[in-house]
Amino acid sequence: MSAAANAVVADLRDRIRQFDGRAAGDRAVLPFGVPEIDGRLPGGGLALASLHEVCGGGADAVEGAAAMLFAAGIAARTKGQVLWCLTRPDLFAPALAQAGLAPGRVLYVEAGDEKSLLLCFEEGLRHGGLGAVVAEVARLSMTASRRLQLAAEAGGTLAIALRRFRHRREADAFALPSAAVTRWRVSQRPSAPLPVPGIGRARWLLELMRCRAGETAEFEVEASDGEGRIAFSPRLADRSPAAGHGRRRAAG
Amino acid sequence: MGAAAPPADKRLVLVGRDGSRRILTAVSRPAEQAGLRIGMALTKAHALVPDILTLPADPAADAAALERLALWALQHYAPIVSPDPPDGLVIDTTGADHLHGGEARMLSGLVNRLGASGIFARAAIADTWGAAHAAARFLADPTSILPTGAGAKAVSSLPIPGLRLPPETAAGLHVLGFSTIGDVLAVPRAPLVQRFGPLLGRRLDQLQGVVCEPVDPLRDAERVSARRVFGEPIGAPETIARYTVALIGDLCRELEKRGLGARRLDLLFHRVDNSLQAIRIGTARPVRDEKRLARLLCDRIETIEPGFGIEIMELSATLAEPLVLAQAATSLIETEEADLAGLVDVIANRIGARRLYRIAPVESDVPERSVRRIAPLALDSGATWPEGWPRPARLLARPEEIEVMALVPDHPPAFFTWRGVRRRVTRADGPERIFGEWWKRDAELAAVRDYFQVEDEAGERFWLFRSGSEAEALSGTGRWFLHGIFA
């Protein structure tokens, strides 16, 4: 494409964004700091003023432990206070602190039911002074997710819907459409063996199942560290669909 | 009486007059155990128990004290409170229980707080004043909540004095052979009314909720309030919202004159049928911001039933505190921290203040005791949990017992079965030994937990522990539990 054509396309894109009602400042992103993942995301990171969905894969769909730490890692890297909405009070706060989210930064809301949970979620997003709002929701309809997306845009706040299903059977509902900008599934993988007895850093299979204006991808990463950063082990780097799945790990 | 009060273990009675007789009007708990009763003649009491301490009854001072108690309840619990002499308070909890985490919590909290200050109280919630009055005084449970619509049924087995009748009427009913409220409800009304007067019929109707019985709310002169009287009754939510905003404007100007900010606001609606509706909101810090207060009050207008119309709206700051203005941060030297007080108030008024909290560390090695909830706007102390010891993302409410196969004494399990699924452990870390806190309870002296972090074949990680004493660990008879799930 010639330079002139490029300029025309860029201009058109800008105008379309203006129709969308989103100013340039809203397109700020939060990079993971891992080039392989950031390169797959439009803008080079998670869009800040928008809704993202995270779900645990396999058995973790109910407990959502890995998904929770993944969300905590993202929230830890934002600036400001974090509102955490939940319905089941089984979250253990020291684990959040170990994922980089200090206890002084998190405000918890324990909602009685899904309806008031969504209400608090939206209220937190519209406030605008928070760094991120995380909500552990079971059901998220298209209407609800669109409302949340609009609230996130209005407040300029990062929204993470942490999907926690009541039962493993319900996890199929994660395939239903929603207005979220990205959708992630986090499943646990066996960790790399250590030369001594013990457990190494946890390893996750991170599936980017949906990405607005982007393609799906999957990555095998090492879990959030004390500052909420996930790492990409070079030995495991090439896990994109094109490179084939059947790579075998060298026995340690 | 404060420090001059006689000790609690004395047999104390208060003595009043009934005509020319001197009778007991109140007896303390030890005196009651000794066989003294209210209404007994003083001479008889002296004959029964020689060492009683008598003080003259002072009904006027009692009434004043009851009013002070009512004021306290007004500030802390609900917008419509009135003293119910000689010994009760009546509180209309509609629209106020959400601030206290529901009716049951509010009731037990009220009784406990009164108990802590030495007042032995009994409380009940019912649809009608009459039913609540009887239930609070005569049900066995010190706190009871009667089911909606069935209040009269629930109190039908309670004795006649629960009906709020003059003593001679109650005695007359007793003579006729009525012993419970249900007995009186079951017989035809007309002969009873002819004999005892219209009050009996009215009390029965009030008990059943057939006749409405408004509570005349208590007010104190000091309170900042604003009031609007309407020539034509209003009813549309938009109209109510408009006048609410106008009232808030009036109230805020008054608060500004006195240098106060509102902590609790009550909006009372007097309906044309002489009944009252109320909204109460609470704020975490003193507020005088019209917009924020309007938001909080207008959120709850939907709970109001205007009925045939509202004649008077009255807004008052039940609890107001000095509002200290703080210097705003300048962008020159520091970044401004977003103020969360507005968000906290909105959420707390919708779903209850107890549901909003921060979690702070506690210096305890026992995992379930290492966290505590603190107020959402508490200052950040910067404290956190010790680093280096891995802690699971999810902690089960109570550890679940599992079946394991493990080498003794100090090896992690090779297999374990949890919730019917058998898992093979591929990698493990531990043990991390945690001792019971013997300084808290003697039973924990020998309690030991050895925690292991294990990973199964699929990569899922769990937090297991073996519980028991040293000897049990050596012999392999300790029980195993699963306590948390890692990510």
UniProtKB/TrEMBL annotation, chain A:
Q: From which domain of life does this come?
A: Bacteria
Question: Could you tell me which InterPro entries the record lists for this protein?
Answer: ImuA (IPR017026), P-loop_NTPase (IPR027417)
Query: Where are the residues of the annotated region Disordered?
Result: 232-252
Name the source organism: Shinella fusca
Q: What is the protein name for this chain?
A: Protein ImuA
Gene3D superfamilies in the cross-refs: P-loop containing nucleotide triphosphate hydrolases (3.40.50.300)
